[in-house]
Amino acid sequence: MPKSKYDTIYKDLKRKIESNEYASQELLPSENILIQTYDCSRNTVRRAVSRLVTDGYVQTMQGKGVRNIYQPTPQTAFTLGEIESFRESAIRNGRVPSTKVLVFMEITVNDSLSGKTGFPAGAEAYYIQRLHFLDDMPLIINHNYFRKECTPGLTKEIAENSIYQYLEQDLRMAIVNSRRVMTVEKITEIDEKYLELNSEEYNCMAVVSSYTYNSDGILFEFTQSRHRPDYFRFQDNAVRRSGA
Amino acid sequence: MPKSKYDTIYKDLKRKIESNEYASQELLPSENILIQTYDCSRNTVRRAVSRLVTDGYVQTMQGKGVRNIYQPTPQTAFTLGEIESFRESAIRNGRVPSTKVLVFMEITVNDSLSGKTGFPAGAEAYYIQRLHFLDDMPLIINHNYFRKECTPGLTKEIAENSIYQYLEQDLRMAIVNSRRVMTVEKITEIDEKYLELNSEEYNCMAVVSSYTYNSDGILFEFTQSRHRPDYFRFQDNAVRRSGA
DNA sequence: GCCGATTTGTCCGTATGTATC
DNA sequence: CGATACATACGGACAAATCGG
C-alpha cells in the first residue's frame, strides 16, 4: 500500500518503465505533463522522479527532459541501496526460496563478539546460522546475531521462515538503515560442507557483513552472509554529483 | 566549489559530523535551528539532510529529531552509491596512488565485445589495461573500454594519470550515471602475474563491472575492475523504505 | 489520558535561474 | 529570441509522531 502521493507516482512510473510503456532511451513525459496526469504539484512529481534517478531508472537532463535508461536486471541479482530479505529478493526474481536452520541459540555477547558485531559486551543475543536455498540449490550461509532486547521472542520456527517478516509485522518494528561491507574471504569447512563447494575450484567466497539499525538508531542486527562465489551477483547504481 | 545553497549546507553538516562536532548517537539541531543557522528555507535544509540520510550519516525520526549515526569508514574502503575514480578514492583514504598502463590500443567493437560492453558493433573504442597501485602495492587490474566517439583524444599519458580528470576537466564531460555489478571470478594468469597472487592461496577475486553513461544518456565506458581479494572492500548504505 | 509544544513528513503554489531547442 | 524543460529556492499549510506537563 503506497503511503503517500509521491510514492504512488514513483511506483506507477517505475511500473511503466519496467513494462516498457516508455521506450528505452526515450524521454518520459515532461514535468508539466506529469503534473496534469497525476493532478499534483511540481514538487511531488520531482520527488518521485528523483527516486527513479537514484534507482538508476532514469536520467534527468536540464533543458531536455528525463531519459529512460532502465535495463532489466538479470535474475539472481541482488540490488544494493535497499534492504531486502533473502525471501523478498528470491520472490522478486521469480525463484523458490527455502531456508534450513543449522544453529539456533541464545548467547551472551563477550568482548570478542562485541568487537565483531558492535553489540555491547554482556548483552543478550540470538545467534542463528541458516542455509538459504534457491530452487533447492544451497547458495548462502547466514550467520545472524540479533540483540534480544530489540527482537524478543525469536524462535527457530520464525527463523525457518522470514525473520524480517516477524520483526516488521508482528513486532511492528521499523528497520531503517543498514551499513553493508562486501569482502572476499577464504572458504571454511562449514562453507565447503553446506554449500557443496570444492575448494580446489573455489577457495574463497563473497562475504557481505551488514550492520542494521532500527528506528531508534539502535544497532540490533549483525549478519555475515557467505555467498557461493559462482552465484554471487550484487548490483548497484551510482550517481556522480557534478563537481563533487 | 559548492554549486548551490543546499549543497553548501550538506557539505557543512557532513564536515561537522565527520569532525565530531555533533556527538555520535546524538541529535543534530532541529530544522528550525538549521533554518536560522543557514538563513534559508525549510525545504533547503531538508534537502541537505536527506542527502545525509542516503549517505548513512544520519537517521531522521518523525517527532524526535535527526540522529547522528555516522561511523568512520576504515581506510581502503570504497564507498558505493557514488562514482569515484581510483585516484580520488586513494586520496580520500590518505594513500598514494600510482598507475601503470599495460596496454593502450584502439579497437573496433566486434559482436562478442559488443555483447560484453554494450557498445554497438562496429564502433571505434579505446582498450586500456591498467595496473593500479596503492602505496606501491598492486591492488587492481582495470580493463577499460571507452567509446572513441564520446572520449576523443585519449592517450597513454592521460591513462597514466587520471582519465576521469581528463574527461571532466578537459573535455568538459559530465559523467552522470554508472551501473555496477559485483561478482567473484576465478583468477587468470594475468591477474596472478601482475597482482603477485598465489593461486593456491586465492584462486578467485572480486570483479566489479561498470557501465557508465554520460549526460546525453550514452553508454561511453565499460570497465572491468579485478581486485586483489585480500584488499577488496566495498561499503554501502541501504535504507529500507517503510512498507516497501 | 489529555493537551500543547516541538519536530519531522507531505503537499501545494510561486518565483527565478539555467540549459536546450 | 521565445518556448520548453529541468534546477534551485522560498513560503505556507496541514498531518503525524513524540515528549513533557
Percent strand of chain A: 25-35%
State the share of residues found in helices of chain A, binned by percent: 25-40%
* Overall average pLDDT of chain A: 87
Radius of gyration of chain A in whole Å, from Cα?
A: 21 Å
Total strands of chain A: the figure is 10
General shape of chain A:
globular
- Counting copies of identical and different chains, the oligomeric state is homodimer
- Main beta sheet of chain A, described? 6 strands, antiparallel
Task: Please state the second-level CATH architecture of the largest domain in chain A.
Answer: 3-Layer(aba) Sandwich
CATH topology of the largest domain in chain A: Chorismate lyase
Could you tell me which chain pair has the largest interface and how many residues each side has? A-B, 54 and 54 residues
CATH superfamily membership of the largest domain in chain A = Chorismate lyase-like
Q: Which strand order does the major sheet of chain A show? A: 4-5-6-9-8-7
Number of domains as seen in the coordinates of chain A: 2
Gap between N and C termini of chain A, in Å? 37 Å
Extract low-pLDDT stretches of chain A: none
Which series of helices and strands of chain A comes N to C? HHHEEEHEHEEHHEHEEE
Structure notes:
The structure is a homodimer of 244-residue chains. With 244 residues, chain A is α+β, with helices and mostly antiparallel strands. Helix content of chain A is 28%, strand content 34%. Chain A contains eight helices and ten strands. The first copy, chain A, has helices spanning 5-18, 31-38, 42-54, 86-92, 111-117, 156-160, 163-170, 189-194, and strands spanning 58-61, 65-68, 78-79, 97-108, 124-134, 137-147, 175-186, 204-214, 219-227, 234-239. In chain A, the strands form three sheets. Chain A has a six-stranded antiparallel sheet. In chain A, strand 1 (58-61) and strand 2 form a beta hairpin. In chain A, helix 1 packs across helix 3 (42-54) and helix 2 packs across helix 3. The radius of gyration of chain A is 21 Å and the shape is globular. At the A-B interface, strand 7, strand 8 and strand 10 of A face strand 7, strand 8 and strand 10 of B. Chain A binds a DNA duplex (21 and 21 nucleotides) through residues 4-6, 30-32, 40-44, 46-47, 49, 60-66.
